[in-house]
Please model this.
Amino acid sequence: MTRKLFVPLLILLTCSNWGGQSVAQESETHIRVIVNMVQLNVAVTDKNGRYITSLRPQDFYITEDGIPEKMATFAEGDEPARALLETQPMKPQDQAQPESAQTTEDSVQARSSITSASALASAVAGAKVFVLFDTSNYMYRGFVYAQDAIADFMRSLDNADQIAFYSYSRDLSRAAALTSDRTQLLRAVRSTVVGDDAALYNALLLTLKDAAKYTGRRVVVVFSNGPDNSSVVPPEDVAELAQSAGISVYMISTHQARLEPVSTAVFERMTTATGGKAYFSKNWTDERKAFESIRDDLAHLYSLSYYPQPNPNRGWRAISVRLVGENLKHYQVRTRNGYRPEPSRFLEAKPAATNRMPEETPAGNADSNTGR
Model:
């Protein structure tokens, strides 16, 4: 979720302050309005798992805590996001409804300030994929095959703007920061070596915090060969951060992890809650198929965003996305199920990290993107 500052007749959109706090000077006559943008990655499939394409913005009906929301931007697959005029239906009957008289002046003013469609769309454009590779001692078997599968996955993401490659055992290694240079990424993959115990949730928390610094579509793809045996961060907090920041988590694990019921349940709950998927591979062939499935999913996701209507709830907010029309109701919709505007308890955990790279200029920070 991205924090944005609006000033009457002027939208402050820069790479340095989108999602963060404006440092521009304001005169006494300026009124500042803070509006949070919620971003959703949405997959639509039929009963056989086939992707449904060519849907329109008006085919989607979004509610937050039961409150109908108006879509601000829309994109399908790898196409650029486009800003929408306020012609979205507020009800699932596929017809426009008048705004509630209780809509606050600030909210109306904020939405009327969206005058630059290209600026708004550019703020949510771009795919950023963070690959997190398990190099713990669980990976003694099939390590090279896993490297090959990850390398092929990176090569196949032709339309992803940027990819980052991290690895972990007891600590996190930021082997390659976000880049479009596939050669650098492949070199980072090949340089990994088997390490110590596995601190998956520590590493995933840090990866999510890095991803939350950026705008646009953000995805974390985890390859884990076994359960977590040394993290100090509970998986529930990690999942909540991913949900609140709007980051989809995909997890590929081996059949060995499938035999551990706790890890299996955690992986499935976390990916489902964030709009991703969990895969359990019996062999290296299945691992490749899982990566291919993730690549296809990324290519067919709808990217939606909206500015929430006034809502006094500062706790957990439930998100629902449905399709409008009798001919669409039987399709399945997958996305994150909610967020917390002010997540805090997991921000205090600071697990160790190694090989920390110099920070690139982000579009914000983890706190601001989760609504703090």
Q: What stands out?
A: Residues 1-35, 92-115, 347-372 have pLDDT under 50 and may be disordered. The first strand starts at residue 2 and ends at 7. The longest helix spans residues 284-300.
